[in-house]
Amino acid sequence: MAALEAGEAAIDPKDLTIQGRIRRDPYRPPYLDDFSRILPIVDKQPRPHPPPEEKVKFMSEEEHASDLEKLIEDLTPKDVNFEGLTEEQIETVLNEKVDFDMAQAKYFEEHSTLVDNDKPSNSALAPSLGKNLRGVTGLYKPPVDPEDQGLDNEGEFQDLKKKSGLSVKDIKALHYHTKALVIRLVTNQTRLGKVQRQWVLAIAGNGNGRIGMGESKSVEISVATAKAKQLAILNMQPIPRYENRTIFGSVKAKVGATIVHLESRPPGFGLRASHRLFEIFRLAGIHDIAAKMPRGRNPMNSVKACMQALMNQPDPNEIAIGRGKKLVDVRKVYYGGEVL
User: Fold this and answer.
1) Left (φ > 0), alpha (ψ -120 to 50) or beta: where does 209 sit?
2) Range of the domain at 319
3) pLDDT, tens digit, for every residue of 163-187?
4) Which top-rank group of organisms is this from (predicted)?
Protein backbone atom coordinates (compact mmCIF):
# COMPACT_ATOMS: atom_id res chain seq x y z
CA MET A 1 0.00 0.00 0.00
CA ALA A 2 2.86 2.35 0.73
CA ALA A 3 4.21 1.79 -2.79
CA LEU A 4 0.79 2.48 -4.31
CA GLU A 5 0.37 5.66 -2.27
CA ALA A 6 3.85 6.81 -3.30
CA GLY A 7 3.01 6.15 -6.95
CA GLU A 8 -0.25 8.10 -6.70
CA ALA A 9 1.51 10.99 -5.03
CA ALA A 10 4.09 11.12 -7.83
CA ILE A 11 1.36 11.74 -10.45
CA ASP A 12 0.53 15.36 -11.08
CA PRO A 13 -3.27 15.99 -10.96
CA LYS A 14 -2.86 18.27 -13.96
CA ASP A 15 -1.56 15.34 -16.01
CA LEU A 16 -4.64 13.34 -15.04
CA THR A 17 -6.94 16.03 -16.42
CA ILE A 18 -4.99 16.29 -19.67
CA GLN A 19 -3.84 12.72 -20.34
CA GLY A 20 -6.31 10.70 -18.27
CA ARG A 21 -9.20 11.15 -20.67
CA ILE A 22 -10.76 8.15 -22.38
CA ARG A 23 -10.41 8.29 -26.14
CA ARG A 24 -13.63 8.30 -28.14
CA ASP A 25 -12.17 8.16 -31.66
CA PRO A 26 -12.67 4.99 -33.75
CA TYR A 27 -8.91 4.25 -33.69
CA ARG A 28 -8.63 3.93 -29.90
CA PRO A 29 -6.90 0.77 -28.64
CA PRO A 30 -9.10 -1.73 -26.76
CA TYR A 31 -7.43 -1.24 -23.38
CA LEU A 32 -10.65 -1.08 -21.31
CA ASP A 33 -12.35 -4.33 -20.28
CA ASP A 34 -15.87 -4.60 -18.90
CA PHE A 35 -15.75 -7.33 -16.25
CA SER A 36 -19.43 -6.92 -15.39
CA ARG A 37 -20.57 -9.21 -18.19
CA ILE A 38 -19.36 -12.58 -19.51
CA LEU A 39 -18.16 -12.85 -23.09
CA PRO A 40 -18.84 -16.40 -24.34
CA ILE A 41 -15.89 -16.35 -26.75
CA VAL A 42 -13.30 -15.06 -24.25
CA ASP A 43 -14.48 -16.09 -20.78
CA LYS A 44 -14.83 -19.63 -19.53
CA GLN A 45 -18.36 -20.81 -18.97
CA PRO A 46 -19.27 -21.41 -15.31
CA ARG A 47 -19.50 -25.04 -14.29
CA PRO A 48 -23.19 -26.03 -14.09
CA HIS A 49 -22.57 -28.80 -11.55
CA PRO A 50 -20.50 -29.06 -8.36
CA PRO A 51 -17.26 -31.05 -8.40
CA PRO A 52 -17.61 -34.82 -7.88
CA GLU A 53 -17.05 -36.51 -4.57
CA GLU A 54 -13.61 -37.61 -3.48
CA LYS A 55 -12.28 -41.08 -4.31
CA VAL A 56 -14.40 -41.30 -7.47
CA LYS A 57 -13.01 -42.83 -10.65
CA PHE A 58 -14.08 -42.64 -14.30
CA MET A 59 -15.69 -45.60 -16.02
CA SER A 60 -13.54 -48.05 -17.89
CA GLU A 61 -14.28 -49.00 -21.49
CA GLU A 62 -16.25 -52.10 -20.47
CA GLU A 63 -18.21 -50.25 -17.76
CA HIS A 64 -19.02 -47.43 -20.14
CA ALA A 65 -20.26 -49.88 -22.80
CA SER A 66 -22.51 -51.72 -20.32
CA ASP A 67 -23.84 -48.44 -18.94
CA LEU A 68 -24.56 -47.20 -22.46
CA GLU A 69 -26.39 -50.42 -23.33
CA LYS A 70 -28.49 -50.23 -20.16
CA LEU A 71 -29.49 -46.60 -20.71
CA ILE A 72 -30.38 -47.18 -24.37
CA GLU A 73 -32.65 -50.06 -23.32
CA ASP A 74 -34.40 -47.74 -20.85
CA LEU A 75 -35.04 -45.07 -23.48
CA THR A 76 -38.65 -44.57 -24.50
CA PRO A 77 -39.88 -43.69 -28.02
CA LYS A 78 -40.22 -40.10 -26.79
CA ASP A 79 -36.51 -39.91 -26.13
CA VAL A 80 -35.33 -41.21 -29.50
CA ASN A 81 -37.25 -40.95 -32.75
CA PHE A 82 -37.42 -44.42 -34.33
CA GLU A 83 -40.34 -43.64 -36.62
CA GLY A 84 -40.01 -45.03 -40.13
CA LEU A 85 -37.29 -47.55 -39.17
CA THR A 86 -37.67 -51.32 -39.37
CA GLU A 87 -36.61 -53.65 -36.57
CA GLU A 88 -33.39 -54.49 -38.41
CA GLN A 89 -32.55 -50.78 -38.84
CA ILE A 90 -33.26 -50.09 -35.16
CA GLU A 91 -31.01 -52.99 -34.16
CA THR A 92 -28.29 -51.69 -36.49
CA VAL A 93 -28.59 -48.23 -34.96
CA LEU A 94 -28.24 -49.55 -31.42
CA ASN A 95 -25.40 -51.98 -32.20
CA GLU A 96 -23.26 -49.99 -34.68
CA LYS A 97 -24.13 -46.46 -33.42
CA VAL A 98 -25.13 -45.24 -36.89
CA ASP A 99 -26.17 -41.60 -37.22
CA PHE A 100 -29.79 -41.04 -36.23
CA ASP A 101 -31.85 -38.37 -34.46
CA MET A 102 -29.83 -38.13 -31.23
CA ALA A 103 -31.01 -34.63 -30.33
CA GLN A 104 -33.92 -36.01 -28.30
CA ALA A 105 -31.90 -38.64 -26.41
CA LYS A 106 -31.62 -37.61 -22.77
CA TYR A 107 -28.54 -39.72 -22.21
CA PHE A 108 -26.40 -37.74 -24.63
CA GLU A 109 -27.45 -34.35 -23.27
CA GLU A 110 -25.81 -34.63 -19.83
CA HIS A 111 -24.87 -37.86 -18.09
CA SER A 112 -22.32 -38.88 -15.54
CA THR A 113 -19.17 -40.62 -16.71
CA LEU A 114 -18.18 -41.63 -13.18
CA VAL A 115 -18.69 -44.95 -11.45
CA ASP A 116 -21.71 -45.16 -9.04
CA ASN A 117 -22.70 -41.56 -9.60
CA ASP A 118 -26.19 -40.74 -10.84
CA LYS A 119 -25.71 -36.97 -10.71
CA PRO A 120 -24.51 -35.12 -13.83
CA SER A 121 -20.77 -34.52 -13.94
CA ASN A 122 -18.62 -31.98 -15.70
CA SER A 123 -17.26 -33.44 -18.93
CA ALA A 124 -13.77 -32.78 -20.25
CA LEU A 125 -15.35 -31.57 -23.51
CA ALA A 126 -16.58 -28.00 -23.48
CA PRO A 127 -20.24 -27.59 -24.52
CA SER A 128 -20.96 -25.94 -27.82
CA LEU A 129 -21.56 -22.19 -27.81
CA GLY A 130 -24.76 -22.46 -29.80
CA LYS A 131 -26.10 -20.21 -32.50
CA ASN A 132 -27.96 -17.52 -30.55
CA LEU A 133 -25.64 -15.90 -28.00
CA ARG A 134 -26.53 -12.76 -26.10
CA GLY A 135 -24.38 -9.86 -27.23
CA VAL A 136 -22.79 -11.86 -30.06
CA THR A 137 -25.70 -12.76 -32.35
CA GLY A 138 -25.63 -10.70 -35.53
CA LEU A 139 -22.15 -9.24 -35.00
CA TYR A 140 -20.14 -11.77 -37.00
CA LYS A 141 -21.62 -12.16 -40.45
CA PRO A 142 -19.87 -13.10 -43.70
CA PRO A 143 -19.24 -10.08 -45.93
CA VAL A 144 -22.04 -10.48 -48.47
CA ASP A 145 -22.35 -7.92 -51.27
CA PRO A 146 -25.83 -7.56 -52.84
CA GLU A 147 -24.19 -6.96 -56.21
CA ASP A 148 -22.85 -10.53 -56.21
CA GLN A 149 -26.41 -11.87 -56.73
CA GLY A 150 -25.89 -14.71 -54.25
CA LEU A 151 -22.77 -16.11 -55.96
CA ASP A 152 -20.53 -15.67 -52.89
CA ASN A 153 -22.65 -15.81 -49.75
CA GLU A 154 -19.77 -17.25 -47.71
CA GLY A 155 -17.39 -14.40 -48.59
CA GLU A 156 -14.73 -16.63 -50.15
CA PHE A 157 -13.84 -14.26 -53.01
CA GLN A 158 -14.48 -10.88 -51.33
CA ASP A 159 -10.81 -10.19 -50.57
CA LEU A 160 -9.80 -11.13 -54.12
CA LYS A 161 -12.62 -8.96 -55.47
CA LYS A 162 -11.26 -5.90 -53.64
CA LYS A 163 -7.66 -6.48 -54.75
CA SER A 164 -8.30 -7.36 -58.39
CA GLY A 165 -11.31 -5.13 -59.15
CA LEU A 166 -13.11 -8.02 -60.85
CA SER A 167 -16.68 -9.05 -60.13
CA VAL A 168 -17.45 -12.32 -58.38
CA LYS A 169 -18.98 -13.63 -61.60
CA ASP A 170 -15.73 -13.04 -63.51
CA ILE A 171 -13.64 -14.46 -60.64
CA LYS A 172 -15.67 -17.66 -60.53
CA ALA A 173 -15.42 -17.99 -64.32
CA LEU A 174 -11.63 -17.68 -64.05
CA HIS A 175 -11.55 -19.93 -60.99
CA TYR A 176 -12.99 -22.80 -63.00
CA HIS A 177 -10.22 -22.32 -65.62
CA THR A 178 -7.34 -22.49 -63.14
CA LYS A 179 -5.21 -25.58 -62.78
CA ALA A 180 -2.85 -26.84 -60.08
CA LEU A 181 0.23 -27.96 -62.02
CA VAL A 182 2.67 -28.91 -59.24
CA ILE A 183 1.88 -30.35 -55.78
CA ARG A 184 4.70 -31.19 -53.38
CA LEU A 185 5.15 -32.10 -49.73
CA VAL A 186 7.60 -29.74 -48.02
CA THR A 187 9.12 -30.29 -44.57
CA ASN A 188 10.46 -27.66 -42.19
CA GLN A 189 12.80 -28.89 -39.46
CA THR A 190 12.16 -27.00 -36.19
CA ARG A 191 13.12 -27.55 -32.58
CA LEU A 192 9.72 -29.19 -32.07
CA GLY A 193 10.32 -31.67 -34.88
CA LYS A 194 9.48 -31.87 -38.55
CA VAL A 195 6.54 -29.76 -39.69
CA GLN A 196 5.09 -30.97 -42.98
CA ARG A 197 2.96 -28.85 -45.30
CA GLN A 198 1.58 -29.06 -48.82
CA TRP A 199 2.98 -26.75 -51.51
CA VAL A 200 0.86 -26.02 -54.59
CA LEU A 201 1.72 -24.09 -57.77
CA ALA A 202 -1.32 -23.08 -59.82
CA ILE A 203 -1.83 -21.37 -63.19
CA ALA A 204 -4.79 -19.18 -64.19
CA GLY A 205 -5.66 -17.75 -67.60
CA ASN A 206 -8.57 -16.39 -69.56
CA GLY A 207 -7.63 -18.10 -72.83
CA ASN A 208 -7.15 -14.74 -74.54
CA GLY A 209 -3.66 -13.46 -73.79
CA ARG A 210 -3.67 -13.16 -69.98
CA ILE A 211 -2.01 -15.61 -67.61
CA GLY A 212 -0.86 -15.67 -64.00
CA MET A 213 0.95 -17.95 -61.57
CA GLY A 214 0.38 -18.43 -57.86
CA GLU A 215 2.03 -20.61 -55.22
CA SER A 216 0.93 -21.30 -51.66
CA LYS A 217 1.63 -23.59 -48.68
CA SER A 218 -0.72 -25.01 -46.06
CA VAL A 219 -1.20 -28.07 -43.90
CA GLU A 220 -4.36 -29.01 -45.82
CA ILE A 221 -3.98 -29.52 -49.55
CA SER A 222 -7.45 -28.10 -50.25
CA VAL A 223 -6.58 -24.83 -48.49
CA ALA A 224 -3.23 -24.56 -50.29
CA THR A 225 -4.90 -25.21 -53.67
CA ALA A 226 -7.60 -22.58 -53.09
CA LYS A 227 -5.01 -19.98 -52.01
CA ALA A 228 -2.73 -20.74 -54.97
CA LYS A 229 -5.60 -20.43 -57.46
CA GLN A 230 -6.70 -17.08 -56.04
CA LEU A 231 -3.12 -15.78 -56.14
CA ALA A 232 -2.83 -16.95 -59.74
CA ILE A 233 -5.94 -14.95 -60.68
CA LEU A 234 -4.59 -11.92 -58.81
CA ASN A 235 -1.20 -12.14 -60.61
CA MET A 236 -2.63 -12.40 -64.13
CA GLN A 237 -0.70 -10.31 -66.70
CA PRO A 238 -1.00 -9.83 -70.48
CA ILE A 239 1.51 -11.59 -72.70
CA PRO A 240 2.39 -10.53 -76.28
CA ARG A 241 0.99 -12.81 -79.01
CA TYR A 242 1.48 -12.74 -82.74
CA GLU A 243 -1.84 -12.99 -84.59
CA ASN A 244 -3.39 -14.12 -81.29
CA ARG A 245 -2.06 -17.65 -81.83
CA THR A 246 1.72 -17.85 -81.23
CA ILE A 247 4.71 -15.95 -79.84
CA PHE A 248 7.15 -13.56 -81.52
CA GLY A 249 10.14 -15.51 -82.83
CA SER A 250 12.04 -17.70 -80.39
CA VAL A 251 12.76 -17.09 -76.72
CA LYS A 252 14.72 -18.95 -74.04
CA ALA A 253 14.62 -18.83 -70.22
CA LYS A 254 16.59 -20.60 -67.51
CA VAL A 255 15.57 -21.30 -63.90
CA GLY A 256 17.96 -23.43 -61.87
CA ALA A 257 19.16 -26.28 -64.07
CA THR A 258 16.07 -26.16 -66.30
CA ILE A 259 16.15 -24.43 -69.68
CA VAL A 260 12.95 -23.86 -71.67
CA HIS A 261 13.27 -22.97 -75.35
CA LEU A 262 10.10 -21.71 -77.10
CA GLU A 263 9.73 -21.23 -80.87
CA SER A 264 6.86 -19.82 -82.92
CA ARG A 265 5.22 -22.05 -85.51
CA PRO A 266 2.92 -21.55 -88.56
CA PRO A 267 -0.87 -21.85 -88.35
CA GLY A 268 -2.18 -25.35 -87.72
CA PHE A 269 1.03 -26.59 -86.10
CA GLY A 270 -0.57 -27.07 -82.69
CA LEU A 271 1.00 -27.31 -79.25
CA ARG A 272 4.12 -29.51 -79.16
CA ALA A 273 5.18 -29.39 -75.51
CA SER A 274 5.14 -31.38 -72.28
CA HIS A 275 1.91 -31.71 -70.33
CA ARG A 276 2.61 -28.83 -67.89
CA LEU A 277 3.70 -26.41 -70.62
CA PHE A 278 0.73 -27.57 -72.71
CA GLU A 279 -1.65 -26.41 -69.95
CA ILE A 280 0.13 -23.05 -69.71
CA PHE A 281 -0.19 -22.40 -73.47
CA ARG A 282 -3.81 -23.52 -73.49
CA LEU A 283 -4.77 -21.14 -70.65
CA ALA A 284 -2.79 -18.30 -72.26
CA GLY A 285 -4.56 -18.65 -75.62
CA ILE A 286 -1.54 -19.82 -77.64
CA HIS A 287 -2.36 -22.38 -80.36
CA ASP A 288 0.86 -22.85 -82.39
CA ILE A 289 4.16 -23.26 -80.56
CA ALA A 290 7.03 -25.70 -80.01
CA ALA A 291 8.75 -26.09 -76.62
CA LYS A 292 11.95 -27.93 -75.76
CA MET A 293 13.70 -28.63 -72.47
CA PRO A 294 17.21 -29.89 -73.34
CA ARG A 295 18.43 -30.13 -69.75
CA GLY A 296 16.69 -30.62 -66.40
CA ARG A 297 12.92 -31.13 -66.27
CA ASN A 298 12.13 -30.19 -62.71
CA PRO A 299 8.35 -29.55 -62.54
CA MET A 300 8.56 -26.31 -60.55
CA ASN A 301 11.49 -24.88 -62.52
CA SER A 302 9.96 -25.82 -65.87
CA VAL A 303 6.72 -23.96 -65.10
CA LYS A 304 8.56 -20.89 -63.79
CA ALA A 305 10.95 -20.86 -66.76
CA CYS A 306 8.07 -21.11 -69.22
CA MET A 307 6.26 -18.20 -67.53
CA GLN A 308 9.48 -16.18 -67.57
CA ALA A 309 9.98 -16.89 -71.28
CA LEU A 310 6.43 -15.81 -72.16
CA MET A 311 6.79 -12.57 -70.20
CA ASN A 312 10.20 -11.70 -71.70
CA GLN A 313 9.42 -12.03 -75.41
CA PRO A 314 11.17 -9.59 -77.75
CA ASP A 315 8.78 -6.97 -79.11
CA PRO A 316 9.52 -6.47 -82.87
CA ASN A 317 7.81 -3.07 -82.84
CA GLU A 318 10.15 -1.75 -80.15
CA ILE A 319 13.17 -3.18 -81.99
CA ALA A 320 12.06 -1.45 -85.20
CA ILE A 321 11.58 1.87 -83.42
CA GLY A 322 15.03 1.52 -81.86
CA ARG A 323 16.52 1.05 -85.36
CA GLY A 324 14.61 3.99 -86.77
CA LYS A 325 12.46 1.84 -89.03
CA LYS A 326 8.81 0.96 -89.40
CA LEU A 327 7.48 -2.54 -88.78
CA VAL A 328 5.25 -3.86 -91.56
CA ASP A 329 3.63 -7.30 -91.67
CA VAL A 330 4.20 -8.45 -95.26
CA ARG A 331 1.42 -10.99 -95.19
CA LYS A 332 -1.12 -8.37 -94.19
CA VAL A 333 0.07 -6.11 -97.03
CA TYR A 334 0.08 -8.73 -99.82
CA TYR A 335 -2.77 -10.92 -98.72
CA GLY A 336 -5.01 -8.18 -97.32
CA GLY A 337 -5.70 -9.69 -93.89
CA GLU A 338 -4.43 -11.73 -91.01
CA VAL A 339 -3.61 -15.40 -91.36
CA LEU A 340 -5.68 -17.24 -88.74
Assistant:
1) left
2) 250-334
3) 988 889 999 989 888 999 999 999 9
4) Eukaryota
